[in-house]
Design goal:
The protein has one domain (2-149): 2-Layer Sandwich (Peptide Methionine Sulfoxide Reductase, Chain A), CATH 3.30.1060. It has five helices and eight strands, in the order βαβαβαβββαββα. The radius of gyration is 14 Å and the shape is globular. Strands 7-6-1-3-2-8 form a six-stranded mixed beta sheet, covered by helices on one side. It has a two-stranded antiparallel sheet with strand order 4-5. The longest helix is centred in the C-terminal third of the chain and has 17 residues, at 103-119. By secondary structure, it is α+β, with helices and mostly antiparallel strands. Helix content is 27%, strand content 25%.
Amino acid sequence: MIKTCVLAGGCFWGVEELFRKQKGVVKTRVGYTGGTLENPTYEDVKKGHTGHAEAIEVSFDDSQTNYKNIFHYFFSIHDPTTLNQQGNDIGSQYRSAIFYNSDEEKRDAFETIEEVKQAGFWQKPIQTEVIPLKTFYSAEEYHQDYLQKNPGGYTCHFERY
C-alpha cells in the first residue's frame, strides 16, 4: 500500500533530493503547507508572510518502509534544533515540521522525536512542530526535481548521522 507524509525541513530542493534515494520511496513532490494563503506561489512563500513552509510530500510503499523510518531519516538530514532556519535559509518558511494526516502518523512522529532525543545526537532541544496537515499546495513545476534538473543547485541538506 502506498502511504504519504508531508515534511518541512528547510529548502525543499535538498530534502527532496535525499528522500528520492531512500528505500521504499516511490514519489516525491515539493510544495507549500501550514499557512493561511490559498494557492500560494513561491514568490508569496519566500517572503515569509503566508505562514506556509516549504515542504515535501513523500509517497512510500509501506511493505518496504514505514513512517518511523521516514521520520528518522528526516531528522538525520536537517537540523531540527534551529527555529525557523536551515543553514543560510532563515524564516518560518524554513521551519522543521511534520504535518500528519492520521493518528498513526501523529503517534509515530512523537515517538520518533522521543527516540531522536534519547539517541543524544542533537545537543539542543528539538524545535520540530507536529501539526495536522490541512492543504498541501504543489510548488511550481520548475521546483519539482530541481536538483535533478540543476545538479549544481543550492542545498544545505546532507546526512548528519
